[in-house]
Design a protein that fits this description.
The protein has 402 residues and is of the alpha/beta class. It is built from 18 helices and twelve strands.
């Protein structure tokens, strides 16, 4: 019998093999979790950029403990229930959202990828969920609105020393069709972020011998950074220096309840206060007109050894009227975390790091991969819990292991 060399197409058909793909999308498709996306992101951007996103304050205890809190959640599933049809939609601040998920505001977003905020907004628009633009964003209020006209747009306001300028930002947000302002109150001064100190991170990044050496390892990031618009703030004129120097130079440490009252009077839309870390403060801002709060430690990036939002959540939810939405962020690394937070009383979960890992790993496609993973994991968790709608998620679905 004569022998012949088998054709690749025959082996492929028999064994189900496919030629390896070397494109960047293939690497994203192989990511089975946010942790996988994080590892890919670490390979694709300079160390200082990754550490700015990944790091937290001090010894990063608050961040680690937030993730450990989610790891302590034990689900209590029910069986013999028809879960063939799931409804993942919910209501956030009086309007429908396709998921109990918000893509939260992040600063210096074009530092992670030159596509920046418009890439994140495009994904949120397709997903039917809100997205928050930061005062420290690298895209203007108006440009973001133009890039994603169907997006539910939120604006994160940091109070700067010039209150007239704050008032002008609020009016610009109204005119540009933003429906919610997020007043962030946990940053009167900058936290001590040691990774940024060790890396010498500045905004914009300065070319040093160390960064020049980094170019050889991450040429794509540097080419994109050097051939697109310079990295600057879109709503602030101040730039230059380390992140901590910028915060301490721009933000107003005298922020008080009077400022919340001023904003409530000036803003006709929904008002959310972000950075709440106690029951008393949650009740206080609700009494002063907040429509919602975000239990948040700024991702562990401000106060080290901060309280854990997930542990505070049930008590805060019980202390507030049902008309006040309670959101939570920090430590969310999967769709099961969303299910846990909603079961414990959260209206929705806001994520920042998770989608920034996607942005670093692959731009808009990377953010899309992260949202797809979160949606799929949330749906699977709901089904395995025996629940078919967000409204059915409650405290009976979970318990916290000691």
């Amino acid at each position: 019998m004569t022998r012949r060399r088998p054709r690749w197409s025959e082996l492929q058909a028999e064994l189900g093999l496919a030629l390896p793909r070397v494109d960047r999308q293939a690497a994203l498709d192989r990511c089975a979790s946010i942790a996988d996306v994080r590892r890919l992101a670490r390979r694709r951007v300079p160390r200082a950029v990754f550490d700015y996103t990944d790091g937290a304050a001090g010894d990063e205890l608050a961040l680690r403990r937030a993730r450990q809190a989610f790891a302590r959640v034990e689900f209590q599933p029910r069986v013999l229930r028809d879960v063939s049809s799931l409804d993942l939609a919910t209501t956030i601040l009086g309007r429908s959202a396709a998921l109990p998920l918000v893509l939260g505001p992040t600063g210096f977003t074009r530092l992670m990828h030159h596509a920046g905020e418009p890439a994140v907004a495009a994904v949120a628009e397709r997903a039917g969920i809100p997205y928050g633009l930061s005062t420290l964003g690298t895209t203007s209020l108006e440009d973001l609105a133009e890039s994603a006209p169907g997006l539910r747009r939120w604006f994160q306001l940091y109070l700067v020393r010039d209150r007239d300028y704050c008032g002008a930002l609020v009016e610009r947000a109204r005119v540009a069709g933003y429906d919610t302002i997020i007043l962030t109150v946990d940053t009167p001064v900058a936290g001590i972020r040691r990774r940024d100190i060790r890396n010498g991170l500045t905004i914009p990044p300065h070319l040093t011998w160390r960064t020049l050496a980094d170019m050889a390892v991450h040429p794509r990031w540097w080419v994109n950074a050097l051939t697109t618009e310079p990295l600057t703030f879109a709503t602030l004129s101040s730039t230059g220096g380390t992140v901590a120097e910028l915060i301490d130079r721009i933000f107003d440490p005298t922020i008080s309840l009077a400022d919340l009252d001023w904003l409530r009077a000036a803003w006709p839309g929904s008002l959310v206060v972000k950075g709440i870390q106690s029951v008393d403060d949650a009740k206080m801002v609700a009494d002063h007109g907040a429509d919602g709060i975000i239990l948040s430690t700024h991702g562990g990036r401000q106060l080290e050894r901060a309280p854990l939002p997930l542990e505070l959540l049930p008590e805060v939810r019980a202390a507030l009227p049902a008309s006040v939405d309670v959101l939570i962020d920090g430590g969310v690394m999967g769709g099961a975390d969303i299910a846990a937070a909603v079961s414990l009383g959260a209206t929705a979960v806001a994520v920042g790091r998770a989608y920034l890992y996607g942005l670093m790993a692959g731009g808009e496609a990377g953010v899309q991969r992260v949202v797809d993973l979160l949606r799929a994991e949330f749906a699977t968790t709901m089904a395995l819990l025996g629940r078919t709608s967000v409204a059915e998620l409650g405290p009976e679905c979970v318990r916290m292991r000691p």
